């Protein structure tokens, strides 16, 4: 017993040393969070930051106007470790996991599966809701999306590029059969996500109990963004406000990881 | 006119200085679309000819100019005596106007050594005053594309060689030296003219270019960091003296060109770039040609951001330092070339035309050059310290296949 315990300890030490050794000069590249990043990108950037803070891994945030081009596949945010580039929330979580750092070691397999389902729901459904509001709703596009997306470019690109991006996002929404949806139907979808997450959270501290996981990081990213975003259209935020435990959760995570 | 016999100009060249002349009329034969005011501008100087020798000379110049500005495909001046007058002459121009529409295909080898094919179509003298419109589509075997449409308007008048032009182009190109692709959409306005009694060529260009740089998987992070959309508005001013007998593989003459590019009023780019080009060629005994060239570039960023990788100075490749890959001299990160803030290049060539004489050349060269980093504190010191040299001997062919058809 004791010998195997020693070996486990050795292996764990070796792994953590290795991870610590490789985890040097780590930068997280994000768009300009205050003026440029759109709701869903802002949420993902915040989620990755939250996740890294939960794991206590050190990193620098570097804001760049062209992160979608710096990123090899156009996905933001971008994590750079020496010459390795990892893009997007899921890939970054996986990478950190491979380095031997994980937030899910206390979970059973069922709980991990539930957590993955939550992540998937936020990523697919909630992100699509956010995209719909930003690009499909005319007033939001004119007053927010167009200006933020074009903010890093000079005229005429500040007009041309949002127009081209809008076209491609609307095609993407059409591929998911979301183009004919009304704002009420989209609100119902959002409500569905919030209801499921709120039920999962219940009165717990985090989605799976007393310890945070990556799903909490992602949830916080999106909730915080939805609560603080200023849009001409407030229906999604109003729906969210019905779920007080989600609001409380967001305040709690913010307090714990961003106000110390 | 058919019953008359005309003689070549040499017959009376330099013999008719004392023979006074009065031009009574200038007539054009074969004009359909060319506007009258354009022709008047082109030939009114003939009426000032004082003697027959001058008239012969000027008529020849006028005929050549008609072709060079694009008013005519072909023009010959015939000088006839005027009836009822001893000193009176009538100048007849036999002209052929440009075809209504031309199109062609051309295959060749670009300066980078890539095989390329281009399709072109155009129309000369669109409005009857020498205006030309042309379009071109070029693609290379490596997958680069370029589409270009341009309109040019010459200023007409006695021995005037100046024009204004507007060009729109879109190009997609791979840049192997920094492992990235660039899309360009550009609008360019240009003025070409002369200064100082037509001794100095003068060019002014206004460029507006939207560039999209996309780093490939192999690109270094310092290239990747610069990827994305940038807008460049720049003003270019160039003056040149050119006495070379031909632009490519000149056998005698010099070219001296100084160009300045300023970017900074609009757009993302803000810099001043100076380029000095000197070339000289002289024939040697036994058919050898000695040629030398020198090029210096200097770039100064004006904004807070460092000068974009697409605007920097590059060196290397067939057009300057042969023996090095295209644009590969200077600061590197991994396998990508980052360009620099200044460059110097000097090359000495020795050519010997082989058979056929204008297509095949024996060629020996000695080239040296260096690029200083964009961040260099002492540019001169760095240019001295990083000097690269290449020398070589080659048989060189200039080959292009042309297929042109007029419709």
From TrEMBL, chain A:
Superkingdom, taxonomy of origin: Eukaryota
Which cell locations does it reside in? Mitochondrion outer membrane
| GST C-terminal domain sequence ranges | 127-260
Source organism: Caenorhabditis nigoni
Instruction: Give the matching InterPro entries.
Output: Glutathione-S-Trfase_C-like, Glutathione-S-Trfase_C_sf, Metaxin_GST, Mito_Protein_Transport_Metaxin, Sam37/metaxin_N
Q: GO CC terms for this protein?
A: SAM complex
**Is-annotated flag, keyword Transport?**
yes
Q: In this record, what's one Pfam family?
A: GST_C_6
- What name appears for this protein in its UniProt entry? GST C-terminal domain-containing protein
Task: Give the record's family classification.
Answer: Belongs to the metaxin family.
Q: Which UniProt keywords apply?
A: Membrane, Mitochondrion, Mitochondrion outer membrane, Protein transport, Transport
Biological process per Gene Ontology, one example term: mitochondrion organization
**By its UniProt entry, which CDD domains does this protein fall under?**
GST_N_Metaxin2 (cd03079)
From TrEMBL, chain B:
Keyword Metal-binding (UniProt): no
Q: Where are the transmembrane segments?
A: none
In its UniProt entry, the species of origin is given as: Caenorhabditis nigoni
Give every Bacterial surface antigen (D15) domain span: 128-392
Q: What name does this protein carry?
A: Bacterial surface antigen (D15) domain-containing protein
Per the UniProt record, one Pfam family is Omp85
Q: Which domain of life is it from?
A: Eukaryota
Similarity comment: family membership? Belongs to the SAM50/omp85 family.
Q: Where in the cell is it found?
A: Mitochondrion outer membrane
Q: How does it sit in the membrane?
A: Multi-pass membrane protein
């Amino acid at each position: 017993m004791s010998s195997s315990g020693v070996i486990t300890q050795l292996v764990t030490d070796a792994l953590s040393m290795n991870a610590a050794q490789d985890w040097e000069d780590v930068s997280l590249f994000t768009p300009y969070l205050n003026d440029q990043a759109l709701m869903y990108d802002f949420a993902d950037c915040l989620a990755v930051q939250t996740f890294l803070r939960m794991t206590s891994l050190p990193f620098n945030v570097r804001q760049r106007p062209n992160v979608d081009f710096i990123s090899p596949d156009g996905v933001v945010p971008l994590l750079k470790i020496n010459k390795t580039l990892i893009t997007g929330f899921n890939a970054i979580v996986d990478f950190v996991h491979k380095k031997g750092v994980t937030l899910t070691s206390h979970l059973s397999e069922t709980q991990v599966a539930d957590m993955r389902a939550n992540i998937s729901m936020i990523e697919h459904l909630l992100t699509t809701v956010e995209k719909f509001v930003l690009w499909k709703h005319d007033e939001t596009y004119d007053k927010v999306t167009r200006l933020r997306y074009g903010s890093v470019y000079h005229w005429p690109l500040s007009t041309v590029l949002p127009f081209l991006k809008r076209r491609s996002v609307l095609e993407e929404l059409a591929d998911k059969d979301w183009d004919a949806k009304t704002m009420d139907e989209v609100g119902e979808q959002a409500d569905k996500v919030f209801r499921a997450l709120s039920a999962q959270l219940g009165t717990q501290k985090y989605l799976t109990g007393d310890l945070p996981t990556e799903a909490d990081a992602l949830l916080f990213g999106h909730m915080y963004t939805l609560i603080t975003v200023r849009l001409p259209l407030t229906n999604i935020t109003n729906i969210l406000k019905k779920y007080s435990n989600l609001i409380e959760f967001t305040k709690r995570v913010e307090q714990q990881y961003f106000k110390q | 006119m058919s019953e008359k016999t005309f003689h070549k100009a040499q017959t009376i060249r330099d013999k008719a200085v004392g023979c006074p002349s009065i031009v009574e009329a200038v007539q054009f034969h074969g004009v359909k679309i060319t506007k009258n005011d354009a022709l008047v501008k082109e030939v009114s100087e003939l009426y000032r000819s004082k003697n027959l020798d001058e008239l012969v000379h000027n008529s020849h110049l006028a005929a050549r100019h008609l072709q060079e500005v694009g008013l005519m495909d072909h023009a010959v001046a015939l000088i006839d005596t005027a009836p009822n007058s001893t000193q009176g002459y009538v100048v007849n121009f036999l002209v052929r106007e440009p075809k209504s529409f031309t199109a062609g295909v051309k295959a060749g080898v670009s300066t980078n050594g890539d095989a390329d094919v281009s399709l072109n179509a155009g129309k000369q003298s669109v409005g009857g005053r020498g205006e030309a419109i042309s379009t071109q589509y070029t693609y290379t075997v490596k997958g680069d594309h370029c589409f270009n449409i341009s309109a040019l308007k010459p200023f007409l008048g006695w021995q005037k060689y100046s024009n204004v032009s507007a060009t729109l182009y879109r190009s997609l190109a791979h840049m192997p030296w920094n492992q990235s692709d660039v899309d360009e959409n550009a609008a360019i306005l240009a003025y070409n003219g002369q200064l100082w009694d037509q001794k100095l060529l003068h060019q002014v260009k206004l460029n507006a270019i939207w560039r999209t740089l996309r780093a490939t998987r192999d690109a270094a992070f310092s290239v990747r960091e610069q990827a994305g959309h940038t807008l460049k508005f720049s003003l270019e001013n160039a003056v040149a003296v050119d006495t070379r007998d031909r632009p490519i593989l000149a056998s005698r003459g010099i070219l001296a060109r100084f160009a300045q590019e300023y970017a900074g009023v609009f757009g993302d780019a803000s810099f001043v770039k100076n380029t000095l080009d000197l070339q000289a060629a002289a024939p040697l005994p036994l058919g050898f040609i000695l040629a030398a060239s020198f090029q210096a570039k200097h770039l100064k960023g004006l904004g807070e951001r460092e000068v974009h990788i697409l605007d920097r100075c590059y060196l290397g490749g067939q057009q300057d330092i042969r023996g090095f890959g295209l644009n590969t001299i200077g600061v590197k990160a991994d396998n990508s070339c980052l360009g620099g803030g200044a460059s110097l290049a000097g090359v000495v060539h020795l050519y010997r035309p082989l058979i056929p004489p204008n297509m095949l050349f024996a060629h020996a060269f000695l080239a040296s050059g260096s690029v200083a980093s964009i961040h260099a504190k002492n540019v001169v010191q760095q240019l001295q310290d990083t000097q690269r040299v290449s020398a070589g001997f080659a048989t060189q062919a200039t080959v292009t296949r042309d297929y042109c058809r007029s419709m």
